[in-house]
Each structure stands twice: as structure tokens, then as C-alpha cells.
Design brief:
It is built from six helices and three strands, in the order ααβββαααα. By secondary structure, the protein is α+β, with helices and mostly antiparallel strands. Strands 1-2-3 form a three-stranded antiparallel β-sheet. Helix 3 crosses helix 6 and helix 5 crosses helix 6. The protein is elongated. The mean pLDDT is 93. The protein binds FE2/S2 (inorganic) cluster. FE2/S2 (inorganic) cluster binds next to helix 3 and helix 6.
Length: 154
């Protein structure tokens, strides 16, 4: 009995994976199932939170040193493609100068992921916009760090 259940569960799992492979690139599936940089950073140097047109929200946390992004993490309550996009945009930002991280676009995320279906393009935009907000936050507080004590977000 248990064996039958195991077999039908495996078949279901395989059929879901087959459906996913028809729609998404291998990179999207990988970053969705094994997201990199998921979570929060305590006392980040830059923080961004954006709610996209679909109503889903993403947060990005940055740590910096000598004008470089040393760590970047994300959180989202969004869909699978938004998890893949948050994972990829933080991977792209890590190790870059602040100026270079600020220039990461929706297209950069899409290219790195091997594309997304039309209806999920905005998920990559949400990730790029959230990164931009986090960089803006970093730049706004860079010269006046005392203002952090008064910020409303984390
Ligand atoms: Fe909202 Fe993907 S559907 S971020």
C-alpha cells in the first residue's frame, strides 16, 4: 500500500516537473526550488521594499563595504518567478560596486534567468525595482547614518 502511494506521489512530482520544464528555463526552476540569498539581514546598509502591479511584495537587504555590495538578500510573498528573480537579482548584485548594482535592470535579470513567460515578465521588474530602492536607501543614508535611527523600515 505504502509503495503504491510512493509511486503515485513520484509520478505526480514528475508530471509537475515536466509541466514546469515546458514553461520555465532550467535556471528559473533551479532558482525557484533552491533560492539563493533568501532571508533578511539585520541592520542592513540598504533596504528596499516594493509592491508590484500584481500586489506581491519584495524586500531586498544590502550590506556594503568600500562602495561594494558584500551581501544581498531578499524576501518575497510572490510567485515562483518572483522567487527566482529575487534570487537572481541578489546574485547579480553581490560583489558589484554600488554604481553597477544600481544599473541592474529587468532585462539583466531576465537574461540571467534564461527568460520568463510573458505573464511573468513583471516579476523580474519587481526584483530590479526593489534592488534599485535598496541602493537608493543606501545612498540616502550614506552621508547621514544617524538618520537610520529614524527610519520607518527595519
Ligand atoms: Fe506577482 Fe510574480 S505574479 S511577482
Amino acid at each position: 500500500m505504502a509503495l503504491e502511494f510512493d509511486d503515485s506521489f513520484k509520478e505526480l512530482e514528475e508530471s509537475i516537473m515536466e509541466d514546469m520544464r515546458r514553461i520555465y528555463s532550467g535556471k528559473v526552476i533551479d532558482h525557484f526550488l533552491n533560492p539563493r540569498n533568501l532571508g533578511q539581514i539585520q541592520a542592513p546598509d540598504g533596504f528596499g521594499r516594493v509592491t508590484g502591479s500584481c500586489g506581491d511584495t519584495m524586500e531586498i537587504y544590502l550590506k556594503t563595504k568600500n562602495g561594494k555590495v558584500t551581501n544581498a538578500t531578499f524576501w518575497t510573498d510572490g510567485c515562483g518567478p518572483s522567487i527566482a528573480s529575487g534570487s537572481m537579482v541578489t546574485e547579480l548584485a553581490k560583489g558589484k560596486s554600488i554604481a553597477a548594482a544600481q544599473k541592474i535592470t529587468q532585462d539583466d535579470v531576465l537574461n540571467a534567468l534564461g527568460g520568463l513567460p510573458e505573464e511573468s515578465l513583471h516579476c523580474a521588474l519587481l526584483a530590479a525595482n526593489t534592488l534599485r530602492e535598496a541602493v537608493k536607501d543606501y545612498l540616502a543614508f550614506k552621508n547621514e547614518p544617524w538618520k537610520r535611527a529614524y527610519r520607518t523600515a527595519r
